[in-house]
Amino acid sequence: MLKLENICYDVDADRPDRAKRILSDVSLEFPDRSLTVITGHNGSGKSTLVKLIMGIDKPTSGRILFNGADVTGDSVTDRALKGFTIAFQQPVRFKGITVRNLLDAACRRKCSTGDACNFLYSVGLCAKDYIDRPVDDTLSGGELKRIELATALAKGGEVFLLDEPEAGIDLWSFDELVGVFDKLRDKTVIIVSHQSKILQAADRIVVLNSAAQPVSGPRDEILPGLTDVGAPYCRRGYAVKE
User: What is the pTM for the complete model shown?
Assistant: First the structure.
């Protein structure tokens, strides 16, 4: 079980004259073996929340608990060793590193050709065409995103954090993308997205709103409100994208 208790996050917290609160008193639970989608209007703190869970940023106050242990002060490396895996909204490019190198690093061993093929095939890529390609500017945004998802699958873990995994993927069908999520149903999966097909695949939905407390619950309870712009937690004009 992953649990957030009274999480607050301020930008420039060490400079009171410039401090800006991004998240205020957020308390959420992410059950084991579940897929939770975090959604909300721009600036509501969705990506920030994912970075806090991964340990990239530290909360101004509050606690993050994983399986009952306080991991608030743990580094990114500490959390990765505990089974946390992240895929960013904008994947990083690496000069001089090939796709095979990335998969080897994710597996923490030399990844067999068969395993590499399976990871790449899972995200709609032909290993023959990509295994030896450098992870640089020769790759499109969509190709880079799929390679990052393949790397996340190769690393494995217990908690998967995916920030807008559909970003840049215009030729690869959403059905295939959702199929990747289905393979992770035995994990704790947290996805930042506002795409309707991804929201429909969720077990639970969290709606962040910088002006109010988050609304969370089972998909069937939350999703109807998201598609109705007049719903109480959509007063900023937020609606899902088809």
Answer: 0.86
